Amino acid sequence: MKEARVMQSIPPLNEGERFILGIDGLSRSGKTTLAKNLEPLLQERFHPWFVFHMDDYIVEWEKRYLTGHEPWYEYYYLQWDVEALTRDLFQPMREKGLGLPDTAGIIVEGVFLQREEWCRYFDYVIYLQWPRQERFQRESEETRKKQEKFKERYWKAEDYYLQTVKPETKANLVL
């Protein structure tokens, strides 16, 4: 059902065009699953599609933990090298670099995609909206035992994103 709604929103690509689709959402909201389900559908219907996962670009542990900042700040601001990603991923993606064909569709999935530094690179953004408690239940039992870490690191950063960026109001489609 979700996939069908998305497919209706994706225009056919003209020769030499790129279309960059962002799949945004908080942790465990289904971003990776949606990208995985969409990729073969898009490949079948349009030009080649490529998927990039923001989790593949997380910086080293030492740069994002025990930095002297509050844990939520480390997660939101230090999880990725925002400037390097902008320069080495998002700009080349838009400017027909990265070794991809000029005519291509690109899916980028990850948390906090609509932050100011990156939002302009997307042609269309889907925001997956799920209640926190339901998302948390998708974590392993072992991970759920670390609820204090979620409260201080992940949930505070998510709340910051929701309050400052308001992703559900900026996205083209909210699911």
Automatic annotation (TrEMBL):
<keyword id="KW-0808">Transferase</keyword>
<keyword id="KW-0418">Kinase</keyword>
<dbReference type="GO" id="GO:0016301">
    <property type="term" value="F:kinase activity"/>
</dbReference>
<dbReference type="Pfam" id="PF13238">
    <property type="entry name" value="AAA_18"/>
</dbReference>
<protein>
    <submittedName>
        <fullName>Uridine kinase</fullName>
    </submittedName>
</protein>
<dbReference type="InterPro" id="IPR027417">
    <property type="entry name" value="P-loop_NTPase"/>
</dbReference>
